[in-house]
From TrEMBL:
GO BP annotation list: cellular response to phosphate starvation
Name of the protein in its database record: histidine kinase
TM helices/strands, residue ranges: 12-30, 42-60
Annotated Pfam families: HATPase_c (PF02518)
Compartment(s) of residence: Cell membrane
Recorded superkingdom: Bacteria
Keywords: Cell membrane, Coiled coil, Kinase, Membrane, Transferase, Transmembrane, Transmembrane helix, Two-component regulatory system
Signal peptide (UniProt feature, chain positions): none
Classification lineage: Bacteria, Bacillati, Bacillota, Clostridia, Peptostreptococcales
Main location: membrane
Xref: InterPro entries: BphY/WalK/GraS-like, HATPase_C_sf, HATPase_dom, His_kinase_dom
Amino acid sequence: MNFKNYIKQVKLSIYLIIFIVVIVNINIIADLRLKKVLNSLIYIDTMILVVCIAFFILGYSSYIKNYKSLFEYINNNKTYKFKNNKLKEVIDNKLLENENTVESLKKEIEEINDYMTKWIHEIKIPIAVLEIISQRVKELENKYFGNYELHKQINIELKRIDSLVQQALYISKSGDYSSNFLIEEINLEKIVKEIIKKNKYLFIYNKIELRIGNLNYNVLSDKKWLMHIIEQIINNSCKYIKEDGIVEIYLQNSEIGIELHIKDNGIGIKTEDINRVFDKGYVGKHNEITKSTGMGLYISKKILNKLSHDISIESKENEFCNVCITFYKLSDYFNVT
């Protein structure tokens, strides 16, 4: 509670004191016989002003003390001497109601997360079966048609389903991400090659040229989260690039650390939209083609910031998009929780 609010609380008392002092002064000054006591009147007014200010300061001090005590009682359930038992009853009931609501919401969220986790693991079974069927389709296509067009389309959609399932799993974990961190030394070259091997069909079917620089560098991070984020960025590059496009992955030194760049020559992003790509739910103008959820980059930035990394995007529409993940120097990793 600040001083301005306290003034609002006691303004009627202030108006009353001013009104009384003004009335008394007017009556005394109006009396011609009392002109000689003008100096005394000024002295009396000064004393009244000093006394009022003193009591005003004491009142404000007491007001602040009571407010802080009440605030601590509400937030920390500490002892507070209530002069109004009805007020105490109302506050206690409201606190109990809020606690019950919070506990209820926590249980609901835990139940939803449990269901999501079970559903995600169960859905992987039909995905695996579809991958086997896809291989059978490939064999039949090769035998009767001499091409793999249907197999190609099935594999692309399977990859998209698997990517969305993985994203749902990581989003369900993102509310309590810090408790799931396992910080270890990771070689960037190994995890990038592992991701590329997993997503090779995206490059083969879309005839995308992959250019990989020297990525042999170790960083401190969480392997599962970092792999998920890099895979999301690579998938986005393949999603927003034309056939025969180019994706470059390389490292670059900076004053603050090492930068991992994932650059493509795809459709890019408008200049005015660059600052919005990390907003929750932002999908951009090309969503009618890609059907994005707008959650990938939002979650990625949250996680990378928690890991004491950073992510930024540089882009020019219809020319390129360059996503940069910055791994700060070792001294900055003490911020990791």
